[in-house]
Amino acid sequence: MIIFNNLSKSAPYLVFKEKYDESHDANQKNIEAICIASYSRESNEVNARFVNLKFINDKDFIFFSNYSSIKAKDFCSHSQITALIYWHNIDVQIRMKAIIKKTSKEFNNKYFAERDEQKNALAISSMQSKEISSYDEVKNNFSKSLKSDNLKDCPDYWGGYSFSPYYFEFWQGHRSRLNKRDVYEVKNDKWAHSILQP
């Protein structure tokens, strides 16, 4: 599930919500899954991974991660990203381009304090993407964290990322392959709508 708060009334956000509702009604699994593609200046490579989109607050798409992860390093060196959602139950793909930034410490603390303690224990115990000797060590670290008295205290190395797209493409698939592609892009501080060929 994605939580919508005071969603923007701009055209692409209304289309996004319409497609989300259709997908939800069609019982789409992992409806909150979103692929985030980033660029690493260090390795000169593009990285992509799925994350859970938690909120859309007004115009901001928000997910959470470890601030020491590979993606965090990518975002720090190159803040432009591309995001992608595919809801196969309604055959809709949504592409977005945006600049990404961290959410505030206050926002992170509030959200972390409201989360399930097992999720927090995992966030505290995992140095995301760091090599480890075995999976047993992952489980042991998690077990140790579960015994902590501070499972509502958000660590400095964990928090949210927020992005407000300046480009949306809504792709609607059809059996005939006459797929419809609607683009909304910010031009001169306004949303411009266009249609692309399949």
Brief description of this entry?
This protein has 198 residues and is α+β, with helices and mostly antiparallel strands.
Give the CA-based shape: globular
List the helices and strands in order: EHEEEEHEEHHHEEEE
Number of domains: 1
Q: What is the share of helical residues?
A: 25-40%
The major β-sheet equals:
11 strands, mixed
What is the straight-line distance between the termini? 30 Å
Mean pLDDT: 95
Radius of gyration: 19 Å
Share of residues in strands: 35-45%
Helical run tally: 5
What CATH first level would be assigned? Mainly Beta
Structural category: alpha+beta
- In CATH terms, what is the fold-level topology? Pnp Oxidase, Chain A
User: What would you say the CATH architecture is?
Assistant: Roll
Detail the topology: elements first, then pairings:
Elements (H helix, E strand, L loop, with lengths): L2 E3 L5 H15 L7 E8 L4 E8 L2 E3 L2 E7 L3 H8 L2 E8 L4 E11 L2 H10 L2 H9 L9 H12 L11 E6 L3 E6 L7 E8 L2 E7 L2
Parallel strand pairs: 1-4
Antiparallel strand pairs: 2-3, 2-6, 4-5, 5-8, 6-7, 7-8, 7-9, 9-10, 10-11
Characteristic terms for this protein:
198 residues; alpha+beta; 5 helices; 27% helix; globular
Describe this structure in words.
The chain has 198 residues and is of the alpha+beta class. The chain has a single domain (3-115, 156-196), classed as Electron Transport, Fmn-binding Protein, Chain A (Pnp Oxidase, Chain A). 27% of the residues lie in helices and 38% in strands. The protein is built from five helices and eleven strands; from the N terminus they run βαββββαββαααββββ. Strands 1, 2, 3, 4, 5, 6, 7, 8, 9, 10 and 11 form an eleven-stranded mixed beta sheet that branches. β9 and β10 form a beta hairpin. The protein starts with a strand and ends with a strand.
